[in-house]
Amino acid sequence: MISDLYFAIRTLRRSPAFTATVLLTLALGIGASTAVFSAMDRLLLRALPYPEPDRLVALHETQTGKGFRPVSLANLDDWRAQDTSFDGMAGFRTRSFGLRNAGSPVSVVMVGMVTSDLFRVLGSGAARGRTFTAREESDGAPLLVLSDGLWARQFHRAPDVVGRTVQLNEQPFQVIGILPPDFVFPVPGTPVDAYIPISHADYGARGTKSIEAVARLKPGVALVSAQAELRGLGGRLAAAFPVDNARGGADLESLDDAWKGGLRRPLLLLTLAALLLLAIVCTNVVNLILARALARTREMEIRTALGAGLADILRQLLAEALLLCIGGGALGLLLANLVLRGLPVVLHQPVAPLAIDMRALVFAAAVCALVTLLCGLAPALSGRRNRRTFRLRQSLVVGQIALSLVLLLSAGAFLRVFVKLVNRDPGFDSSHVYYFGFGLPEGRYNDRQMVDFHEKLRARLAEIPGVDSAGAVARLPLNGRSNTTAFQFEGAGLPAAEWPSVAWNAVDPAYFSVLRVPLMEGRVFAWDRDRVGRPLALVVNRAFEKAYGAVVGRRVQLHFWTDLTPKNQLWQIVGVVGDTYQTGLDREIGPQIYLPISQTGLDGGDYAIRTARSDAGLAGAIAAAVSSVDPNLERIRVRRLGDWVSASLGDRRLPAILTGLFAAIGLALTALGLYGTLALEIGQRRKEMAIRVALGASRASITGLVLKRGLALTVAGSAVGAVGFIAVGRAIESQLYEVAPSDPANAAIVLAILFACAIGACLRPAWSALRQAPIAVLREM
User: Fold this and answer.
1) Phi, psi of 648 (to 5 degrees)
2) Which of 157, 208, 414, 692 could make an S-S bridge to 655, C-beta 3.0–4.6 Å?
3) Do the Cβ atoms of 535 and 590 come closer than 8 Å?
4) Phi, psi for residue 715 in degrees, rounded to 5
5) Tens digits of per-residue pLDDT, 265-293?
């Protein structure tokens, strides 16, 4: 066997182009499929990092026509008091805080505001110290539990940190515990640095639906029975509190589905694309080795004449195939590792680093073994049956073309969606706009002081040389989420349960100017006009006006209030502005209202700044302006709004880029396979071509003969691929936006690309046939 491997190495070295082509082809197929299956295993197949994860469920409130919604803390308390199916329920939400430790600068940390039983529900506890109790939660005790990462990063693993007092949003909090390193917050990809008891004063109102909830089923309780009980509890609370639970209810899903639901569809589609590419790779490798076997017919005949038996030839071919597959597999695993490092970036999911695992390695090894068997046995078994080998190779080419067409049509559909969204007007101008996030400590700022802060900061930012305008907003557009509230027009007299819902945002009066959102009717807010104590003002978007008719001058009542805007006040609509995409470019624009922070205050959000500057000193000037108003706030990070808009397309970028990449590789391999088949066929028919030329056949007729043969294979493969895409189109239809799988423009472009590549693959063998001198070929007869 060693001698066979040595001879195989010498043989492959004499054909460097063939060896390199096969190695690269195998590396692409094995690398892509291994990377995708490793990602599938890490992101979808592995169990959640908690004890008995199958008993964990995510709890939701529901509203007719709106699906799952966040949970009210008051409703969660009632569920816990009445349920019989759960071993515990817990609520949580996150928010950034400014942390100061022993006189060090303020640093921004992500804090989980949680109910006390979250850690027990998730099956964890403190590694040092303890967590807080239910009594401490209800009392609002200023207690802090650190994550292991924050303990290491901020406190350098000081052993005396438990018991220490730190400043959180400038309020004293006592550190009482440190969580173990493997504790994972129950929202995937959300890095949480510390935990405090959730404030019942801030989030305890039944109408405040702002927390997520998780629960653990009792042993032996089926998910469907717990779901039925929770739905019953939700219905009873909706009847008991119709104002706060209008058209509402409750439901649950497994925590596994809640975590992985958003990743399943893109990863499954990516897996399908990788499998299609792997099929193209395997057929192409077999095709290449069959072609080489036919070209080595005379070599094999000489070896047979010298006494080599079928077993000797078979061992040699298997040794060559084994070396090719080992080399291709090694390169493929290297490629897979590189792909896995970049996949979280393409996915736009803040997941932990991905790595190749044992199951993916087994899969890659199985692929290598299968390809080795096919590559080794196919030419040996086909032997001298050239006609049967030609038919097999032509069938393989037809299959490659069909698979490539499926990949190209899928990639074309995703690319058209992506291009459509990239070119879509978001309703605002992000060019020359920067933004930064901020937060105001509630311990030092009441609502009126927040208004004063924003008025001062807006003026300071506007004084920076080169800054045109600046303004705050509670939620930037395209952030994937929106706040909602209920409302009714003055005099409508609707029961509270029948008030319609509308999205709302709180903005600085200069916000519309900063983002250049057009004014359609009426006016926008003004600092000198819409102040505390003046009539409350609202601005609505165009979609609101389309839904409710002429609205400027009408007054509405909102299920929204602050210390500055008491409950049951009337707000007058003073203007209509253009529509902007708030939750995403692929989401429909619904009615939205804007509240002026000059009348409501704002404790946290983002500042948008329009400026022609792009120098390095801009960020420092902005930070200095913030510090001049309040030097004790956390450090800010200035970023481009255009990058924010681009990042919002992450979910659409994944299928467009990766299926496009797979399709391009598949198309190149298919063109290579078609070229190889035609080149070999022309080589086998050299004498026939020479006789045709000698008898007066023109160059055009010879070229047409080759093109006819290649295009016949392309048409056959396209027909098979079109049938296959019918099934694939149904699978990807839900991921497309305003583009149908059967889009004729997409089909026309893809077919044009496919046939252009096919014609290119045909012309090279035709040119080779025309270059040969007929008399030289005829002398060989």
Assistant:
1) -65, -15
2) 414
3) no
4) -65, -45
5) 666 667 777 777 777 777 777 777 776 76
